[in-house]
Amino acid sequence: MRETLFWQVSGRGNDLVLVHGWGMNGAVWQQTVTMLETHFRVHVVDLPGYGHSAHCHAQNLDEIAQMLMVGAPKDAIWVGWSLGGLVATHMALHHVDYVKKLVTVASSPKFSAEKQPVIWRGIQPNVLAAFTEQLVDDLQTTIDRFMALQAMGSPSARQDVKQLKQAVLSRPLPNPDSLLAGLKILSDVDLRSQLMKISVPMLRLYGRLDGLVPLKVAKDLDKLLPHTEQYIFTRSSHAPFMTEAETFCNQLLSFAES
């Protein structure tokens, strides 16, 4: 029997799918769900290896997509945060009947920084390698460090980290194999050359203070994706849906209605 992912569905209206990031689970979206479920039928998934889907495992974006399609609605708005943005973008590229509109949040088509042939801003490869090494030794400390890194720079960093930690701890801890696979995706995947094939309307959301996905990425993607929309949250780091929750939900609503 195929392993099935955990989905939480609430509200009424057009279908909206929320996809969390690395080391997290669907509980990070709780505040967002409360605000959006009066406008949408909201589908929140725990990705393979995370939260209530900790018993599942997927090695790459294609395997994640295959598992998502078992429970995902078709013709939905997909909202992917961080690593979840890569997942949602992959769905828009390869399974477009599932994706009516695409929203990426604090995400990048290539998370790993690069110096050649041209400079690409992102997470330094040695940082990702260090997380991989630490993960083998101490799962909890690695996740704690990553949460601190995500909130760094935000004026509400302490509160953001507290919310992220509460979300992670409210469900089963991630499966270490899936965490390692996720770090490999963050390190290796580069979707830049495929972006022009995205055929659905797209909104890109960024935090001005984000150290993991710097604003330079937004500017570079303006050139690669001239027909997409973007919005920058001025007070946010890597988790704008927590730091500026109301503005975040308003951005989703106006994009859904456009």
Number of helices: 10
Largest sheet data: 7 strands, mixed
Percent helix range: 40-55%
Oligomer: single chain
Q: What's the CATH class label?
A: Alpha Beta
> What's the total number of strands?
7
Q: Kindly name the structural category.
A: alpha/beta
* Arithmetic mean of pLDDT: 93
Helix/strand order: EEHEHEHEHHHHEHEHH
Query: Tell me, what's the shape?
Result: globular
CATH 4th-level superfamily: Alpha/Beta hydrolase fold, catalytic domain
Structural domains: how many: 1
Radius of gyration: 17 Å
Distance between the termini: 41 Å
Quick structural overview:
The chain has 10 helices and 7 strands.
Task: Give the topology, please.
Layout: E1 6-11, E2 14-19, H1 30-36, E3 40-46, H2 61-71, E4 76-81, H3 83-94, E5 99-105, H4 125-137, H5 139-151, H6 157-169, H7 176-188, E6 202-207, H8 215-224, E7 229-233, H9 240-243, H10 245-257
Parallel strand pairs: 2-3, 2-4, 4-5, 5-6, 6-7
Antiparallel strand pairs: 1-3
Helix pairs in contact: 1-10, 2-3, 4-5, 4-7, 5-6
